[in-house]
Amino acid sequence: MKPVCRAVRVLHLFARMNRGGAETWTMDVYRRINHNQIQFDFCVNSPESGAYDEEIRSLGGQIFPLPWRDSPRSCGKLLGAFLRRNPYDIVHSHLYLFSGYTLRVAAGAGVQHRFAHLHTMGDGWETTLKRAIYRTLMKRLLRRHATRVLGCSRAAVANVLGGSWERNDRAAVVYCGTPLEPFERGAGSAGDVRTEIGAAPDTPLIIHVSNFGPAKNPLKVIDVFHALQRRRPEARLVLVGDGQLRSAALEHAAKLGLTEYIYVLGIRADVPQLMLSADVMLMPSVREGVPVTMLEAAAAGLPTVISDLPGIREANDVCGLGTLLAPSAPSEQWADALAAALGRPRLEPRTALERFRDTPFTIDASAREMERLYLAIRAATASH
User: Fold this and answer.
1) Domain topology for 181-357
2) What percent of the chain has pLDDT over 90?
3) Rg of the chain over CA atoms, in angstroms?
4) 20 to 30 A Cα–Cα from 24, which one of 10, 49, 135, 272?
5) What residues contact residue 104 under an 8 Å CB cut-off, 6+ apart?
6) pLDDT score, position 139
């Protein structure tokens, strides 16, 4: 009688399971994998609850808070002891370069399979001597202790492993795809969203969706919209999300006399419907991997004026709906691009969705690839 293989146990490492790009993508993968074959648990570096905690438990996963903060010594002690008590087949770290250290701890605790997942192209910190030494050391640890290095783009992998990464059999690109079901359900609901926020059917809507962190450049969003207002005074800005710099962005808008022209929606679960309701997405980020919001815009057929960064360029070569500008380009130039995008006819949403379905940027494509990588480890283990 053939033995029944147990599920592969994967421990994901995050700061906290809130609605961020990497966290949301991981949850989308979790919903789609075969839970009889693969089971996720989550170790978070925060004692506070996250937005996805309840759903994780409903899917059979567990959440383990280990608040080591940014202390390698504390991480080594807490995470090392935890892994020695709780054996996992795979530790999958989403902590950017700090994954070098967490995977070193995992190796010391006897975890054989260790994934580093790179969801961005930089850590956002100013380059000081201390930060440069930290980056060099963490990249060295990551290259040494990761048995798999996954990146959201080719550029993200090359940034850590170097230009010859394609010859490294440990490295792979797994695009952080987006679910298509909300766009299928929401194709006819654009008018409903406009009614909710009080925007007329013909009002030009510029949408910005982000976590309002420094990488998203939210004050530039306000400056660009201010410049657009001089060209298209009937235009309105829709801000979706919350975070560190949202208050500063709104204060900046108030100083420029823009408050009455901005809809502030906060964190929303209906981003696809908002994308279908808008006319252009604005995203002047200074640092990105392949942003999920860009993929959502492409699935909705929403034109995008977005930063010319390596991962974005890579996705735009496939999706093709973005006007790319340098993040440092003057706000007037960004406003010109927005005005031009408003003047072009928009791709019909169902046509856009069918085109997007054939790209590697869907969540089903992501989930299939992650399932393949996880189950290959089970197969290799069973053969020994």
Assistant:
1) Rossmann fold (3.40.50)
2) 71
3) 22
4) 135
5) 141, 144, 145
6) 96
